[in-house]
Amino acid sequence: MDRKDILSKVDHTLLAQGATWEHIKVICDDAVKYGTASVCIPPSFVKQVAEYIGDYPRRIACDNMNGGDRENDSDAVVNTGGELRLPKVCTVIGFPNGYATTAAKVFETEDAILNGADEIDMVINIGWAKADMWEKIEEEIKAIKSACGDKVLKVIIETCLLENSEKKEMCRVVTSAGADYIKTSTGFAGGGATFDDVKLFKENVGAGVKIKAAGGISSFEDAEKFIELGADRLGTSRLVKLMKN
């Protein structure tokens, strides 16, 4: 698998608390240039990002008319073989702790989609999982999926905080609730994606549920192995940094 194929499965991510609009714009430009699946950014930037990415075709056209002076925009066309492919806009809900109320998470989701989000990555209530409150978690995922409509919903279960038996139960719950993806981690809880967790997901999720590995993916070799084990998406910023450096 070449690097272009791997990058096409990456959610290029910046969720640091101190991120500014200037930082977010760089993430967007890099996502277009390197052909990532999406940009994953804080909810407060969704509207700006949707407008910024949506304006790319016009900026490319203007750039071409003016002799190609805009470095990032002109490189985008070159690096996609002449075909401009725009990344989806992804954001996070109930992030990173997951213990907001269901009503708050639903409102966040509706607001994000209204502002232009294409994909939603929600965090489950970890305390409910530790207390075996599987029905409550399923109800919450269903409510957020309903708020998503036809947009993609990824469910972050924070694998580093769960036992294997709880991870397997979450595979069942995510499947039953009708979410599109199960996702390993926020990257904020002291642990990230592991090969064992992606393998466990692959063996336990139902038909139609995809897998996102996120947190700590720092090499193309590891990224390729995650994909071979069953990951459909990778949440990381490091692969693009490797390309740039």
Instruction: Give the CA-based shape.
Output: globular
CATH fourth-tier homologous superfamily: Aldolase class I
> How many beta strands in the DSSP annotation?
8
Oligomerization status of the protein chains:
single chain
First-residue to last-residue Cα separation: 20 Å
Number of helices: 12
CATH architecture descriptor: Alpha-Beta Barrel
Strand content: 5-15%
Fraction of residues in helix: 40-55%
Radius of gyration, in angstroms, nearest whole number: 18 Å
Q: Under CATH, the topology is which?
A: TIM Barrel
CATH class: Alpha Beta
Question: Low-confidence parts, pLDDT < 50 over ≥5 residues?
Answer: 70-74, 76-80
Strand order of the largest sheet: 1-2-3-4-5-6-7-8
Which structural class best describes the helix and strand composition? alpha/beta
Describe this structure in words.
This protein is α/β, with parallel strands linked by helices and 245 residues long. It has a single domain, classed as Alpha-Beta Barrel (TIM Barrel). It has helices spanning 3-7, 21-34, 46-54, 56-65, 71-79, 102-114, 126-130, 134-148, 164-177, 195-204, 220-229, 238-244; strands at 10-13, 38-41, 88-93, 119-123, 152-156, 181-183, 210-214, 233-236. An 8-stranded parallel barrel has the order 1-2-3-4-5-6-7-8, surrounded by 7 helices. Helix 9 links the parallel strand 5 and strand 6 (181-183). Helix 6 (102-114) packs parallel to helix 8 (134-148) and helix 8 packs across helix 9 (164-177). The two termini are 20 Å apart. Mean pLDDT is 94; it is low at 70-74 and 76-80.
